[in-house]
Write a structure and sequence with these properties.
Elements lengths: L3 E18 L4 E14 L4 E7 L5 H16 L6 H11 L7 H22 L3 H4 L7 E5 L9 H10 L7 E5 L5 H14 L5 E5 L6 H11 L6 E3 L7 H10 L4 E3 L6 H9 L5 E2 L3 H4 L1 H14 L10 H9 L7 E3 L12 E3 L2 E3 L8 H7 L3
Parallel strand pairs: 4-10, 5-6, 6-7, 7-8, 8-9
Antiparallel strand pairs: 1-2, 2-3, 4-12, 11-12
Amino acid sequence: MLTIRAVRAVPVEVPMKRPLGTSAAAVPSAPLLLVDLQTEEGVIGRSYLFCYLRAAAPGIAAMLGEIERLTKGARIEPAKLWSTLARRFTLIGVQGVVRMAMSAFDIACWDALAAGEGEPLATMLGGAPKPVRAYNSSGLGLQHSPESAADEAEELLEGGFTGVKLRLGHPTVDEDLNVVRAVRKRLPDAVKLMVDYNQALTVDEAIVRGRALDGEGVHWLEEPIRHDDWRGCAEVARAVKTPVQIGENFSLPHQMEEALALGACDLVMPDVERIGGVTGWMRAAAIAQAHRMEMSSHLAPEVSAHLLAVTRTCGWLEYVDWADAILAEPLRIEDGHAIPPRRMAWNDDAVGRYRIG
């Protein structure tokens, strides 16, 4: 059994190869928080978070400092530690930076257990590593003309990807359709095209645009409206033929269960840093299985590839290359499938170069 000695967090900001434009904001770089869980036995567990905003990293790091204080000397038993921390943080709430810090800690705990056994994470979870079908989400931002979007879509197929994601939310439905048609025309028929509105629309707008996209070869319609308006999502899902995909903003598994009970979507894609780390993901996977609901991932492809390998209703892995620069062994893509690294380790030179502060 491993015992917690210390938790260390290092913020970095990595330039994106393709700056990402969404309906909410333009994202030119990836602020990441790298977490090392040190044990008394010398085993190190690692995880990282995408912080969305550079300013969020210090807040999450401060919460990890509090988690270290509360767990120092404890045995690494992830589910038990999660429950203990959730009780301690009841008054502030397991939301926002608290939840993200707890998720990073949980992932690092599981990684330490796997490292201690000399096994991949997927094996520790009762399965085995295997190639996972991935779509490329490392581009196709909103700020594109139809032709430039089509050009980039072709570039994103390198590595054998059989799916790509396009962000939408232009001022008019016709502009959205023009980009979708240009991209769809350029892609082979077998390649899936996912579209993401990043919560840009009202329910009425989502129904109008969703119906306009029906028949345009779109594989799923992601987050068309406010992420926590599950009744509105259910109304959209009933009104359009294209499957509605939500879930990256599910805060812990109980929210996913509530959304599914209301018929809010046709597909789910939890984010490991918001659903509650590995422990939360496995609970969410059981919920998806009970509902016979296809479950894909959101970001964090290195750990998500292991998690999807043991998810009974496995869908797609969302691939982004944002952490490649600071990883000693980045995730590989072969024939459109993700091949996760056995261990997560940092490229120390790159961490030094991109470190914040």
